[in-house]
Amino acid sequence: MKTPVEIELAENARLSAMSVGGFVGFRTLLYKEVLRFWKVAFQTVAAPVMTAVLYLLIFGHVLEGRVEVYQGVNYTSFLVPGLVMMSVLQNAFANSSSSLIQSKITGNLVFIMLPPLSHWEMFGAYVTASIIRGISVGLGVLLVTGLLVPLHVANIGWVFLFALLGAGILGTLGLIAGIWAEKFDQLAAFQNFLIMPATFLAGVFYSIHTLPPFWQAVSHANPFFYMIDGFRFGFFGVSDVSPMFSLTVVGIAFVVLAALALRMLRTGYKLRH
């Protein structure tokens, strides 16, 4: 049984080791996470881009000329920012969640838990890698769809800010899901019954002003709606709600989820057995 003094000395030694090698550890884990998806970029980047383009071709062909959401904005142009943001969100979630569940199932999670990495460094590496993947896919979708649909960016700052925050939120949510899930079925349920519905019901393909009052109220309770609506504002300068209000909701959501993820990492919830 260690004495309180011995426990304090051990903790001080651990913190000292983290302060010396932590930045190297963060960079190494970040490099590993980026390399993990980039080595299979055809699957992790190119495939989602192709999926988004197919959505554009199908919905654009069916609804172009029949729907005008904003005055002077044709439907395909309206659709592009929604598809870009949907791709950013889904791929940011997929990156951190799939990485953790694979590490759990293959048993190599121990090699991440053993080095003197703080919970802040683990959180930063996983979420940053998720942001990089989400933004990479989003840029790919934007570049390809930009060849098919004329686009005008009203304010690049809003576009970048909401893309960054959206990817950060979904990367954090993927981290939480990956920590919580113990098998692929649980992770798939999390994605299929939470992430996918919340994304598709967030105004990717429509404006919530076209919905009945009840469903408008439901949409306003969906944080994903504010990410997509704020992102779309950066392109057209118009939105369903104030971009500042959207930014506030998105910022609060990120802080709450980050606090939860950091607590799970700090306590080792379902990570240390």
Could you give the topology of this structure?
Elements: H1 4-38, H2 41-63, H3 75-106, H4 110-113, H5 119-146, H6 156-180, H7 184-200, H8 213-220, H9 223-236, H10 243-267
Helix pairs in contact: 1-5, 2-3, 2-5, 3-5, 3-6, 3-7, 3-9, 5-6, 5-10, 6-9, 6-10, 9-10
Keywords: Cell membrane, Membrane, Transmembrane, Transmembrane helix, Transport
Domain ABC transmembrane type-2: 39-268
Organism: Cupriavidus pampae
- Could you say which structural class the secondary elements and strand pairing correspond to? mainly alpha
Give a short account of the largest sheet: none
Tally of separate domains: 1
Number of H/I helices? 10
Shape field:
globular
Keywords: Cell membrane, Membrane, Transmembrane, Transmembrane helix, Transport
InterPro entries: ABC-2_transport_permease (IPR052522), ABC2_TM (IPR013525), ABC2_TM_bact-type (IPR047817), ABC_2_transport (IPR000412)
Protein name: Transport permease protein
Subcellular location: Cell inner membrane; Membrane
